[in-house]
Design a protein that fits this description.
CATH superfamily: Vaccinia Virus protein VP39
CATH topology: Rossmann fold
Shape: globular
Helix content: 25-40%
Largest sheet: 7 strands, mixed
Length: 238
């Protein structure tokens, strides 16, 4: 996993910047009930999406939270007085504190997403909504020449798989309430980048160096392929 303290300063520039943040925030807010008055943005990172959540819904009190000091330091500049440093698996809030919880690009990083979903459910009020990204890895399977080569080596069972997240949610009284999608601006992968990720064990570990070499020798190895479309799932607390 990345060292997010070290990554903080350059994180936004390598993750689609403001266009991606705007797309993500708009999609999240489309799933948040109109009468929601408070939202907790877990793993808020630099606050680039969190700020847009606050600006996009007048009257919605938004709190950002992240476990990396470097990230919260930057987020606090964007949302003064509204950012907390804490672990998403042990939230420092009483039960029933929020009308909505958003979790963008976190669950796929975890070995077990269950504790985060459990804590999100705990701090939601009855009728509150959890909105989270799911199936991040699948979103990058865009039908490119790289995908054709890598298809036989996909063995991952992602922590953020939609079925798994839905099962976790059901176990804590959360029922599906909506789906939205948004474009991953600036997130199209290049063959050279994917080959590097294979060599470092981040992707398709079973493919090994042979797969990395085949992908890196594809035409236009530094040209990004199609951008992904990410999926959000919403779950309402009974």
């Amino acid at each position: 996993m990345l060292d997010y303290d070290k990554e903080a300063d350059g994180y936004d520039a390598t993750r689609g910047g403001e266009p991606r943040a705007a797309a993500a925030a708009d999609a999240v807010l489309a799933l948040v009930p109109d009468d929601a008055r408070s939202l907790l943005d877990l793993a808020c990172g630099t606050g680039i999406v969190t700020r847009r959540l606050a600006a996009g819904r007048p009257g919605l009190r938004v709190t950002g939270m992240d476990a990396a000091y470097g990230m919260t330091r930057r987020a606090a500049v964007r949302l003064p007085g509204a950012v907390v440093l804490a672990d998403c698996r042990q939230l420092p809030f009483p039960g029933g504190s929020f009308d909505a919880v958003s979790v963008i690009w976190l669950l796929h990083l975890l070995d077990d997403a269950g504790p985060v979903v459990a804590e999100a459910a705990r701090v939601l009020r009855p009728g509150g909504v959890l909105v989270t990204t799911v199936d991040k890895a699948v979103a990058h399977h865009v039908g490119s020449d790289m995908d054709a080569l890598a298809a036989p080596y996909r063995t991952e069972r992602a922590a953020d798989g939609a079925e798994r997240v839905t099962a976790y949610a059901a176990g804590h009284g959360l029922a599906p309430s909506g789906t939205a999608r948004f474009r991953g601006h600036g997130q199209g992968r290049t063959p050279r980048r994917v080959a590097h990720s294979i060599r470092t064990g981040e992707l398709y570990a079973s493919g090994g160096l042979q797969l990395a070499d085949r992908i890196e020798t594809l035409p236009d190895p530094d040209v990004p392929r199609q951008e992904p479309e990410f999926t959000l799932r919403a779950y309402r607390k009974a």
